[in-house]
Design brief:
60s Ribosomal Protein L30, Chain: A, 33% helix, alpha+beta, Phosphoribosyl-aminoimidazole Synthetase, Chain A, domain 2, homodimer, 6-stranded mixed β-sheet, 2 domains, 4-stranded mixed β-sheet
């Protein structure tokens, strides 16, 4: 009777049972680059010749990056892959596939396991980025470490540390929406449904420009990620605060929650928009409107790279830090 | 005074300080396939044209796969990459690079962090498999999830699930040594120094044979991994127990510790030798001696794939399981 009354947990199914479950759920994945998926010692993908392989890893850890109370398991699974796809977007790469190293306590409910995997697979299918393998392990808390592989034309990957003085600075979409959604969910005790949208198409369009500048995805917050762009360059940036794009109704929504809109927009992070630069050479002299058309996304010019070190024009600049 | 007296921990340095540390330690990595390493949104590798990309992920979690009491941080770092390289070996692939998703409590001593990364980088350098990126996160226990990427001639990756009736079954090296070393370390309270040797050269030699059979690396134990090879085939195997290779002095060493040598050798796991099959076609009709020469490693013929399902000839067959 006992097994009928309680939820099934990971330890009821066992490691190989769980792997078989993932294999079953992942069986219907189709992608031209997929040669051999889950179930062997390793997976086999076949990118085209003349392409560079791009790889990125990002983890979500229980009580650090998510709480079961505020995020559904499917959202955690989706998010785990989405934030990695955003890194591929920031490199101008197209997705090839992903792996997941999953850790969880044996007492975790099986339906959470299933929902998380289903969420991850739904995103994998949406972006033609099949789950091709992974690893399961016991641990004290639940976590997923997702690694994605992408491909980009040889030598054409967008980079962070290539800013030059005089370049214009741009941002896709708007900033602050992710932090606002999180603050709302926390206040109301509801679940966070908002998910980042990896700007893959925009990233590839940028990489296809004749002379692209630097590019990074905004995960730590606009201020922190702008500093990452400048790192080691000895250069600085002048930002026009009022040009940093915010979602519609943002200021009013922040006011109703007693939040500082500037702070949320500049340090909140997790928006996963692209922050990039463009020179003033022929071919890069694109207006906001022309860029928005190429990237199929609103693009805002927010400032300029300058020789004087440091960032000016921002009231604050700290993002999200671990440890 | 307090900071002078106590060990520095991760929280003293902060996330970006830790990343800078890894970047500094990893700066001297050289490999022809490395285009862009640590420090951007993703890494860039360039395998040759006409090659398939092979990827694998494996985690080591504190108190599940290792204890600080019995393994040094450097050993944990080395091991984290070595077990992944063994998966590339089992596919017949050459290493291209790796990433690591690292999680640890803020109170972890910084010297452990450094030693672990140094250990991982030493192995990366030894096998020309540069660390090209990763992720750091807080967590309740320390863990590393390593993902490796390898390359193999298009369509030539060795697979698990391609056994055919009549094929001969082989094992490289010897089995049981890893379990014996662990048992010894546990009895004597010493640290485990023995590390697996990924059979990369042997795997590539196998993949170069005109008609290779199935291949798997022995991580769960001979019995369990043999079952993995047979999975879904409807076939079975006849094993000659006395032919399963053991290290020199193994029986006596087991006796002195009161351990059952058969059990250790067949279920111990963690030996990371290759278990593979070969047909009896021309080109595969190689003797143990000829194979050992090709693989530059002792090779033992231990049995045969047969039509009757199930494994015969083994006194027991359970390996290592999570959950």
């Amino acid at each position: 009777m006992r097994t009928l009354l309680r939820m099934r947990t990971l330890s009821d199914v066992g490691e190989f049972g769980l792997i078989a479950r993932i294999e079953r759920l992942a069986r219907n994945q189709h992608a031209p680059q997929l040669v051999l998926g889950i179930g062997d010692d390793a997976a086999v993908l076949r990118p085209r010749a003349g392409e560079d392989l791009v790889v990125s890893t990002d983890s979500l850890v229980e009580d650090v990056h998510f709480r079961w109370r505020t995020q559904s398991p499917a959202t955690v699974g989706r998010r785990g892959l989405l934030v990695n796809l955003s890194d591929l977007a920031a490199m101008g790469a197209r997705p090839l596939g992903c792996t997941v190293a999953w850790a969880a306590p044996p007492q975790l409910e099986l339906r959470r396991f299933d929902s998380l995997i289903r969420g991850l697979l739904a995103t994998a299918s949406e972006f033609a980025c099949p789950l091709v393998g992974g690893n399961l392990s016991k641990a004290r808390e639940t976590s997923i470490a997702v690694t994605v592989f992408g491909a980009v034309k040889a030598g054409r990957a967008l980079r962070r540390h290539v800013v030059r003085a005089g370049e214009r600075i741009f941002v896709t979409g708007s900033l602050g929406g992710a932090s606002l959604a999180l603050a709302r969910a926390e206040r109301r005790g509801g679940r966070l449904r908002r998910l980042p949208i990896p700007r893959l198409r925009a990233g590839r369009a940028l990489a296809a420009l004749p002379r692209p500048g630097a590019c990074i995805d905004i995960s730590d917050g606009f201020g922190a990620d702008l500093e990452h762009l400048l790192e080691g360059s000895g250069l600085g940036a002048e930002i026009e605060l009022q040009k940093v794009p915010r979602p519609r109704g943002f200021t009013a929504a922040c006011a109703s929650l007693g939040l500082d809109p500037d702070r949320l927009c500049l340090t909140g992070g997790e928006d996963y928009e692209l922050l990039f630069t463009l020179g003033s050479d022929a071919g890069c002299r694109l207006s906001e409107v022309a860029l928005s058309r190429r990237l199929r996304l609103p693009v805002s010019e927010v400032g300029r790279i300058c020789r004087r070190p440091g960032v000016r024009g921002l009231p604050l600049k700290r993002g999200w830090r671990h440890y």
